[in-house]
Design a protein that fits this description.
5 strands, about 280 residues, Antirepressor_Ant_N, Mlu1-box Binding Protein, DNA-binding Domain, 11 helices, coiled coil, alpha+beta, elongated, 2 domains, Antirepressor protein ant N-terminal domain-containing protein
Length: about 280
């Protein structure tokens, strides 16, 4: 049975709660307290969480002192791991929460859905569709998508190194020997080195777009979205990176030369666009 080590008050939706650090070094929040604050039934929410395999293991019982008549008594109370809080809130029927906070809950759910889209879209979409979607992104959305893709890649490495993937798959009754051997060589090659900065990344992005457009105009690859997706994939394969913002800074000029050669392949005899001669930005770090 878990025990409570320390409590940390915090404010959420205008209410003050206590995040409790338990003996497993995880933080939890009392489910009944947040349910009452939202105006929803804690018993039905507990059943919903228990039936949801994605977060059922994040709901635990912890013995705490609770008010009883004119004194207190110790009893087991349901606590939700704070890591599961955003997911759970995203599944709540907003029409059931208190009217005065309903707008905030809806806003949270919308933001949760939008954030999940940017976090997972690189895993969901094939390269050609991802390139088409990216064409209609704002610069801020494109940068966010790149950051989230980097985050997902880093998290996968952390999960592998920490054994979290193995534990989760074993919990589902799956074998991971092949998975471990498949990534062994990749992990051995992972080294810490400075990647291109945001200005350099924008340069590479513009060059890739130029090559994609040249490829499309050559008539060798259609539609346009496939041409742009193909050069992106060629670039990643050549430099062995998962996304172009992970390009090591020391290989920036090599990347510019590579893209210039690909542009000349599709536009032989024509002068390179000015962007290829714009130079590179030094690292800000």
């Amino acid at each position: 049975m878990l025990s409570i080590l320390q409590g940390f008050p915090f404010e959420f939706y205008g209410e003050t709660y206590t995040a409790l650090l338990a003996s497993d070094r995880q933080f939890y929040i009392r489910l009944d307290e947040i349910c009452h604050a939202l105006g929803i039934d804690p018993n039905s929410q507990r059943r919903r969480i228990q039936s949801d395999e994605a977060i059922s293991d994040k709901l635990v019982n912890i013995a705490v002192e609770t008010p009883y008549q004119n004194s207190t008594r110790t009893r087991e109370v349901a606590f939700l791991n704070l890591r599961a809080l955003p997911y759970w809130l995203g599944t709540i029927d907003a029409s059931r929460v208190r009217e005065e906070i309903r707008a905030k809950v809806i806003l949270f759910k919308r933001d949760f859905a939008e954030t999940a889209w940017f976090v997972y879209r690189a895993d969901i979409l094939p390269p050609e569709l991802a390139a088409e979607v990216e064409r209609f992104d704002t610069p801020q959305e494109r940068e966010l998508a790149e950051l989230m893709a980097d985050f997902r890649s880093l998290k996968k490495k952390v999960d592998l190194l920490s054994g979290r993937v193995e534990k989760e798959l074993e919990r589902l009754g799956l074998k991971v020997d092949e998975l471990n051997s498949r990534y062994a060589d990749i992990q051995a090659k992972v080294v810490a080195e400075a990647a291109i900065n945001s200005q350099q990344a924008r340069l590479i992005q513009r060059l890739i777009q130029e090559v994609g457009e040249a490829m499309f105009q050559s008539g060798k690859v259609k539609p346009r979205s496939l041409a742009h997706a193909r050069i992106q994939q060629e670039f990643k394969d050549y430099f062995q990176i998962h996304i172009y913002t992970a390009l090591p800074e020391r290989r920036l000029q090599e990347a510019v030369d590579f893209l210039a050669s690909r542009w000349r392949h599709y536009k032989p005899g024509q002068p390179l666009p000015a962007v290829f001669h714009s130079g590179s930005q030094p690292s800000l770090g």
